[in-house]
Specification:
Blueprint (H helix, E strand, L loop, with lengths): L1 H41 L9 E4 L9 H5 L6 E4 L2 E4 L10 H5 L5 E4 L7 E4 L12 E3 L9 H19 L8 E7 L3 H12 L4 E5 L15 E3 L3 E3 L3 E3 L4 E2 H15 L3 E3 L3 E7 L2 E6 L4 E9 L20 E2 L12 E5 L3 H13 L3 E6 L9 H12 L3 E5 L2 E6 L2 E6 L2 E6 L2 E4 L7 H7 L3 E4 L16 H35 L3 H4 L5 H4 L4 H15 L3 H7 L9 H22 L7 H24 L4 E2 L2 E2 L2 H21 L3 H11 L8 H21 L7 H22 L1 H38 L8
Length: 744
């Protein structure tokens, strides 16, 4: 007995030591994140360029799935125990972090308060405010090539449903796609696969703005399925390889891009549009897809002389600048890459002007390259400067030292693109400026369910299906051994089913193997967050539903394997560890029940306060209508007070009793209301108000408890696996040792 006690005490001590180490690691990680964030702010790396995540620290529970999900590396870190956007300037809007957050603490927004962003208004299928006109790709705010390709495929599927069947004849086609970049090409391939006739108009050449990227630039990091082609792309693709792949996909689908066709206006209404080009051509179609990107409308400096022939807005061929004095204007990746390419691939004398004091917006590898070229004297940096005039043979610059003159032959302006506002407005497409806001889809009557609504419905159906399957499994196990399991222990050995159902019997052993395999499937939830092959496969919340199902079912099925007996210490510890892990999971869900949430998303502290204020306003009119207003008011004031206990644990323990007492008092007050409808509003509102007051009072405490619980739950799960491995090892040794014995 004493040995058992010592062994158990040692195991508990080891568990607490591991928990302490993990908590210290979290603290150290938080300190590293704080230092990285401070450095990013010092280097002006804390303002994102476009689509980026906003993480609510009040909602984050510290699972840090978002950190592992980001393909770009350490864009998100840990500060003060919660996930924080650190390398904001290098976030390119993958959006994986939002999908992998199990509590909805992350939302994707466009623009910031410092840097607003204009975007066309679209719905969930990319249809703009102009019915029949669709906007995809960078023009809609999704700059990643993989997003552009997927949107192109999706819009083709949508158009098939919308147009039903092809009506192309003569000069009439089903769809005109404006833009021959990845989004436009994918849309054309998708339309072709769905039996629609589409024409693709591109003002320059195949690939759109990608054709003007620097040679060798890596432009794609994920694969996408294209109709009639299959898996498109590789983990890393250069600009040249991407263009080759695009042409191969076009050839496989027999899609052609009409180059040199600039669209100048779109007229008409659904279902008939007239698309006019700069060459005077006119195409009639039933739908229009705009995939023109932003770089086709380069942002201007706004200085005198910018309209001179020597000013261009992209670097096409470095060799054409041999021996010239070239000024690159800008400090982002496009400008820095242009300066690097000119210095490395031509004999030009290269200068680069940027209004900031460092190239903070550029990626680290580009900053390292241009720093080396500056050190070698091959690029001249003119920082904290603005171009005020472009003249023949020179450029006038305003610097901290005053206005200066720079001898110059060519100017390359690379300060980004801007929305083709006038063109969109002429097409009838509404535009909105976003300043750190979510892009809420325009909702039309009868529109299909959104992606989030579909996911929520899928999770509900999955939960119901799993509950049904789990109940069926337990019922079947019970029916098979009902006679045996209810026998007294001393009578089991002589029962006919003993050899079959005992833990070492054919059935009992088989159930144990199946249950152990099933139980290990619980770790698929953890693998989903870490293993590349599973990332992106359904939302993390769907995996969490499966995780909870397996966790609850495992100890119940294991009990049938053990025939509801504890035959040895290791088996007992194994089952106990499993039960504790499940218990901590259930307790976590119990804790989570005290977290304010709405529609499956956690609420921030400010939202909780706002929600309580709205409840007060909703209940107030019903207080006046009561015949005994004074008594009802006292009941309201009692429910609207903060908990009298300062201890979170005590408040949680007493919450159920307090809630029952309040419900009873509300029931007695029903006779003071004019009708049942008014009383039900009062009842529901008051119960919610009372619960909300407790949530508000213990919000910070609950967050700390929840974070510690997560660490404990993980450690116990690892400990459980070790015990299971030991139990399986002993079983194999005792049950199958004869295989390894020497018969000789």
């Amino acid at each position: 007995m004493s040995e058992t006690f010592i062994f158990s005490g040692a195991l508990v001590a080891v568990l607490f030591a591991i928990v302490a180490v993990l908590l210290l690691q979290r603290r150290r990680r938080s300190m590293v994140g704080a230092e990285a964030l401070a450095l990013a702010k010092a280097n002006n790396q804390d303002i994102p360029p476009s689509l980026h995540p906003v993480i609510d620290p009040d909602l984050c529970i510290g699972s840090f799935s978002c950190i592992k999900a980001c393909p770009e590396g350490d864009i998100i870190g840990v500060v003060n125990g919660v996930a924080t956007l650190i390398e904001a300037a290098h976030c390119i809007g993958h959006g994986r972090c939002e999908v992998d957050c199990p509590v909805g603490a992350i939302k994707l927004v466009f623009g910031t308060s410092e840097r607003g962003m204009d975007l066309p208004q679209t719905d969930d299928v990319f249809e703009s405010s102009k019915a029949g006109v669709f906007v995809i790709g960078e023009l809609g705010g999704m700059g990643l090539i993989k997003n552009a390709l997927r949107q192109g495929v999706d819009v083709g599927r949508t158009l098939k449903k919308r147009l039903q069947q092809s009506d192309a004849q003569g000069s009439l086609v089903d769809v005109v796609i404006v833009g021959g970049g990845p989004a436009g090409i994918a849309a054309a391939i998708s339309c072709k696969a769905h039996g629609l006739v589409a024409r693709v108009l591109e003002q320059e050449s195949v690939g759109g703005c990608i054709a003007h990227y620097p040679r060798g630039k890596v432009v794609m990091t994920e694969q996408v399925d294209l109709p009639a082609f299959g898996r498109f792309g590789r983990p890393l693709l250069s600009k040249e390889e991407l263009l080759h792949e695009l042409r191969a996909a076009m050839a496989a689908a027999k899609v052609r891009v009409e180059e040199g066709q600039k669209v100048v206006r779109i007229e008409g209404e659904q279902p008939m549009f007239a698309v006019h080009t700069a060459t005077g051509a006119q195409l009639h179609c039933r739908a229009v897809v705009l995939a023109i990107g932003l770089r086709g409308s380069p942002r201007k400096i706004g200085c005198s002389g910018e309209d001179r022939p020597k000013v261009t807005y992209r670097l096409v061929d470095p060799e054409q600048y041999h021996g010239m004095r070239v000024l690159v204007v800008g400090g982002g990746d496009s400008a820095v890459e242009a300066a690097i390419q000119l210095a490395e691939e031509s004999s030009a004398k290269v200068s680069i002007s940027y209004r900031q004091d460092s190239f903070s917006r550029a990626k680290q590898r580009n900053r390292d390259k241009i720093a080396a070229l500056i050190a070698d004297g091959r690029v001249r940096p003119i920082l904290s400067s603005e171009v005020v005039a472009i003249e023949e043979g020179l450029v006038r610059l305003k610097t901290e030292q005053g206005e200066g003159r720079l001898k110059n032959d060519q100017v390359i302006v690379a300060i980004g693109g801007e929305l083709p506002t006038e063109f969109l407005k002429a097409c009838g497409v509404d535009i909105k400026k976003y300043r750190g806001e979510e892009k809420l889809a325009v909702k039309r009557k009868g529109a299909a369910l959104t992606k989030h609504e579909v996911e929520a419905r899928t999770r509900r159906r999955l939960a119901i299906a799993l509950m049904t399957v789990g109940g069926g499994i337990l019922l079947a196990l019970l029916l098979i051994g009902e006679e045996y399991y209810f026998l007294p222990l001393e009578e089991r050995a002589t029962a006919p089913l003993h050899e079959f159902l005992k833990p070492a019997g054919l059935w009992g052993h088989g159930v144990g193997v199946a249950a152990t395999t099933f139980m290990m499937a619980n770790f698929l939830y953890a693998l989903r967050k870490r293993w590349g092959a599973l990332k992106g496969r359904y939302s993390i919340r769907t995996w969490l539903t499966f995780h909870q199902f397996v966790g609850v079912m495992s100890p119940l099925v294991i009990a049938f394997h053990a025939a509801f007996l504890a035959t040895n210490l290791l088996a007992l510890w194994t089952w106990a560890a499993l039960a504790v892990v499940v218990g901590t999971g259930v307790f976590g869900r119990f804790l989570f029940g005290f977290v304010p949430a709405q529609a499956g998303h956690l609420l921030a502290l400010s939202e909780v306060r706002q929600r309580l204020q709205e409840l007060e306003r909703k209940i107030e009119p019903h207080l006046v209508e009561a015949t005994n207003a004074e008594l009802v008011r006292e009941l309201f004031d009692s429910a609207n007070k903060a908990p009298k206990h300062r201890s979170f644990l005590r408040a949680v323990v007493e919450e159920r009793g307090s809630r029952r007492k309040l419900a009873k008092a509300i029931q007695h007050a029903a006779r003071f209301f004019p009708d049942r409808a008014h009383w039900e509003v009062f009842r529901d509102g008051l119960l919610e108000l009372s619960h909300g007051r407790m949530q508000l009072a213990f919000y910070a405490t609950m967050k700390r408890v929840f974070a510690a619980w997560l660490v404990l739950h993980v450690v116990l799960a690892i400990f459980m696996v070790v015990l299971i491995a030991g139990h399986v090892g002993v079983t194999i040794y005792l049950g199958y040792g004869w295989i390894f014995t020497d018969k000789g």
